[in-house]
Amino acid sequence: MSTTGPEQIRWFRNTAPYINAHRGKTFVLMLGGEVAQHANFPHIIHDIALLNSLGVRLVLVHGNRPQIDERLAQAGLERRFHNGMRVTDSAAMPLVTDAAGSLRAQIEALLSMGLPNSPMQGSRIRVCSGNFVAARPIGVLDGVDFHHTGRVRRVDVAGIREQLAAGSIVLLSPLGYSPTGEIFNLQLEDIAVHCASAIGADKLLLFGPDAGLQNAAGELLRQIAVGEMPGLSFASDEQARLADTARRACLAGVERCQVISFQDDGAMLQELFTHDGAGTLVAKDDYEQSRWATIDDVGGILELIEPLEQQGILLKRSRELLETEISHFRLLERDGRILACAALYPYPEDSCGEVACIVSHPEYRGGKRGERLLRGLEREARQQGLERVFVLTTQTAHWFIEQGFVECGRDALPAQKQNLYNLQRNSKVFFKAL
Fold first, then answer.
1. Which is it for strands 428-433 and 406-408: parallel, antiparallel or unpaired?
2. Could you tell me the pTM of the whole model?
3. Cys-Cys with 252: which of 36, 197, 261, 418 at CB 3.0–4.6 Å?
């Protein structure tokens, strides 16, 4: 029999901040029809049930493109698309509604299961679906009549919020309804973006075949700001579509979108409950926030810099000294965790400032966080009317040279700093004109 070891205990403790942060939040999950065809789909449903039990309010938006294609093929009907949108004529529409209804029933059935030895054991989950999405016809575009293909007109925000407040999972199929009783075939992405924006969702989770978004070189992109997207090329057309959906959602007011794999078991939980996640975060702004430190950050900064002090890379700072100097420090943080810090000590009488204590957490190096903090301190120095910044270093000279610093003699330092120079450390002096 296996026992719970230190690693499992440590993992559980590390998830606690995320459990607290996500409780009461609203997530919209976009699952394409191909997700339901994958062997991992029951595991995803179990993880969705777990989120529900942790107090997360959930809206599931499912697609049915492959299911529609199968029914069209069986009926001997042609698949018709224009500009990436399906043309839904009168012959295809009954097959569309059949595919949507069948998949909706499958998802409801899975969420109703109480499997022993699973997160579903003993669960009593209410699933609510209905006419929450009003639609209008696309009409004729480029001379092509889209017939029963439509666009989202509006989302019943009050109705969805009422169900979420009652603890139900809201399930939306890719269908919309008109005031005249017509049914329209809608794009999955259109519903997901409109719904997440309308109800003020905290996150939109997008499931794709790959582990997040990858660039053209196949490298996983851990996080992307919307402003960075125009210059990016993605590894596949499917990834480009997911990225565009996330971009549209962010521009429509959703703070964070996360792209994760539907093939990897537990990917959603890893993305939501670990520091590094398992996919790609897309945000309106940079996910890691930069700010000035406060007295409450002293403990986090000490934890960050103590290993480097022990190695002799940084001078030892006591808690008392750090408390008096805390206003000079700037931080990068993610989910309340300090990932990097740096300090600026101005010498206004000499029109210069010292950049010091640039440190990144060892688990988060390689993300150019030091460069971001340095640029922020340089901007602050200019705003203070300083003309130059300098740094004293024993082991990182090459990095500062790469950032535009030039080695100088000790006599270039402000007189006050020269008096404090530690001859035993024999630090090199570098200056940079602003």
1. antiparallel
2. 0.68
3. 197
Sheet holding 406-408, edge to edge: 289-292, 329-334, 337-347, 352-360, 388-393, 428-433, 406-408
Average pLDDT, the chain: 89
* Per-residue pLDDT tens over the stretch 73-117: 999 999 999 988 999 999 999 999 999 999 999 999 888 875 455
Which helix or strand (DSSP H or E) is residue 334 part of? strand 329-334
What is the distance between the alpha carbons of residues 13 and 173, in angstroms, rounded to a whole number?
Answer: 37
DSSP for 225-291, written as a single string: EGGGGGG--BSSHHHHHHHHHHHHHHHTT-SEEEEEESSSTTHHHHHHHSSS-SSEEEESS-SSEEE
What's the rounded Cα separation, in Å, for the pair 12 and 14? Answer: 5
Averaged in consecutive runs of 10 residues, what is the pLDDT profile of the chain (434 residues)? 64 80 94 94 91 94 96 95 93 96 92 60 80 94 93 95 95 94 95 95 95 88 83 88 93 91 92 85 76 92 87 83 94 83 95 93 71 90 94 90 93 91 86 94
Do β-strands 85-86 and 81-82 pair in parallel, antiparallel, or remain unpaired? antiparallel
**How many whole angstroms separate alpha carbon 360 and alpha carbon 340?**
4
Q: Give residue-wise pLDDT tens across range 230-254.
A: 778 898 999 999 999 999 999 888 9
Q: Which residues pair with 347 in a beta bridge?
A: 352
d(CA 224, CA 12): 28
- Which pLDDT value is given to residue 1? 38
Q: Which two tokens stand for residue 301?
A: 């900064």
| Class of residue 243 by CB neighbours under 10 A (exposed 0-12, middle 13-18, buried 19+) | buried
Whether 271 and 277 have beta carbons less than 8 Å apart is answered as: yes
Q: Which of 69, 100, 67, 34 is nearest to 263 (CA)?
A: 34
d(CA 73, CA 102): 17
Residue type, 340: A
